[in-house]
Design goal:
alpha/beta; globular; binds glycinamide ribonucleotide
Length: 209
């Protein structure tokens, strides 16, 4: 079984899609060994508890400085010993040491078609606000491996979603989640866990089986 830790910050609907996928067998070879949140009391931790998965709140405010927070995060990860870390709406910058230690083993979901509406300042609802302000007709979601940059790591999966004329940021966010995010993230984890990812010229491709 592949040991997976999911990092979250809020609602945890992507976490729920993962938990459901493991429960119904569509995500194979996978055990969710822990959920880490940088915010206490969030719905994502309730979802973990309901699924019988240990949840941990590691909050920057509880530590003297950023370095101490990063160390606490690294220590918890070391304890959980994951094969794969999934950033499912984890809205904090992760430590460089974590990126080094888990190279090609951290996946992030971003709610746009990277390289559109990504990088500094584009997270959560802000991504959809940017998309509507620009008048894009197509958006979507991306699952990528994490590197040292912001939303710059190797792209694994993308799915397009239509923008409608009467969309609000919240309506568009929901459509992107339903049509793209909750489909892509479980698929990416299943592919990783089943060893179905080939790296070709530094780029990951899913081998369908
Ligand atoms: C999701 O839309 C995810 O793609 C986004 O935060 C939301 C979390 O929702 N992540 C980012 O913007 C990362 N840059 P959730 O807690 O309901 O899964």
């Amino acid at each position: 079984m592949v040991r997976v830790v999911v990092c979250v910050s809020g609602g945890g609907t992507n976490l729920q899609a993962i938990l459901d996928g493991v429960a119904d067998g569509s995500i194979r070879q996978t055990q969710i060994v822990g959920v880490i949140s940088n915010n206490p009391g969030v719905m994502a931790l309730t979802r973990a508890e309901k699924a019988g998965v240990p949840g941990y709140a590691i909050c920057p405010a509880d530590y003297a400085d950023r370095e101490a927070f990063h160390q606490a995060l690294l220590d918890k990860l070391a304890e959980l010993s994951p094969d794969l870390i999934v950033l499912a709406g984890f809205l904090v910058r992760i430590p460089e040491e974590m990126i080094r230690r888990y190279e090609r083993r951290i996946l992030n979901i971003h709610p746009s078609l990277i390289p559109s509406y990504c990088g500094v300042g584009y997270y959560g609802l802000k991504v959809h606000e940017g998309c509507l302000a620009r008048g894009s007709k197509i958006t979507g979601a991306t699952v990528h491996f994490v590197d040292a940059g912001m939303d710059s790591g190797p792209i694994l999966l993308q799915k397009a979603v239509e923008v409608h004329p009467d969309d609000t940021p919240k309506i568009l966010q929901r459509r992107v989640m339903e049509e793209a995010e909750w489909v892509l993230l479980p698929k990416a984890i299943d592919a990783f866990a089943c060893g179905n990812i080939d790296w070709i010229d530094g780029k990951p491709w899913i081998r369908e089986n």
